Amino acid sequence: MPTRAHHRFWPQRLPRAITLPATPLWDGLSVNARRYPDKPALVFMGRDTSYAELWRQVERLAAWLGSIGVAAGDRVLLDMQNCPQLVVAHFAILRADAVVVPVNPMNREAELGHYITDPGARVAITTADLAPELARASDALPAAQRLTHLVVTQFADAMGDGGFASEGDDAPPAAWRDWLTTQHPLPPLAGGVVVPWREALQSDAPVPEGRARGTHLAVLPYTSGTTGLPKGCMHSHASILHNALASALWGQASADAVLLCVIPMFHITGMTSVMHSGLYAGATLVLMPRWDRELAGRMISRRHVTHWVNIPTMVIDLLASPNFASFDLTSLVSISGGGAAMPQAVAQRLFEQYGLRYSEGYGLTETAAPSHNNPPEHPKQQCLGIPFMGTDARVVDPDTLQELPVGEQGEIVICGPQVFQGYWGRPEATAAAFFELEGKRFFRSGDLGHV
Question: Which pLDDT score is estimated for 33?
Fold first, then answer.
């Protein structure tokens, strides 16, 4: 790509753009199940799930989805906190050539109705604590728009016969125990079928052939909906795969990396830059369903976490723990995040105590998370970073759409392989979100910044 001003800050070890594999998102996990069959892919409350076992569950659930008629391009709603079942369900939906519709578990009945009807989802997968709300949302809809199948998992389904530890480093925080260990009854679903997780995983149906490729729709995450109802952002296998692979290269993740996964995987950053990136690299993901500073400190120490993507408030909270002196953070080699500026004093403490340079980044749902990132070796504090791999980003006058000179504030616009295809069922909103500059299609972020 042409040389631009930010390339003088470019890490010499990295290419400016990358060549993507011509394979679907799930293929990397399939490959790693053969490369590292016995290696832990996921760690959840002390229980390891190997790459081979993870892939076995993915294929069984994909087979079940195919057996009930889920076909290529169908949208399947996924409503969960971080847990192994979320990872299995996400990849199973992709393996069935269907489209993942990730939903914030904090949404209630009124919002959930929109996430069912807007993408036309007929199948949903959720945890038992959230299932009643989702069932009520479906029941309130006209019969033709309701869910036909609801797969429900208990958190304990991830733990096998041993269940959750009651004490020790792997034990859930006391405040979580009822939430994680309660066996919730399955709700009724008007006009539909509720299927227990373990029953779905026992399917002996054939696995779908798997014909999806790079340009095919893979994920339909929704924007926050600050203006009107949330809009679905159409991401292909290629756009998600680009940022997953680029994030692994940028952060030097490998099969020997251990990632603390506490930012939500329903969110685009956790989905792309942690889950997909880590599993593509063959790393181990240590899953936390919610933030808890004591559990995070123990997991980093005990599991020798090497990479941690977070929001700055998590770091601030961890450093404030009365037990902080007992935590061993020396295994960390990469710590990064966004969403808010990291206070200079906190960044300085990380560097002085651990030699860690906190690397901030910027991105949106429409850009599959990072469109900008700080060079890990030389990050600039309270700065969004430089345009990411393969990305052309400019600052333009929001009225004239002409590029502005260095130092002048304007709208950040982005062109790159990670940019979404458009808004689901919203051609006018899609047209308004893009414009052409120098023969390229740029996305208008709506955010202000300056070079």
Answer: 98
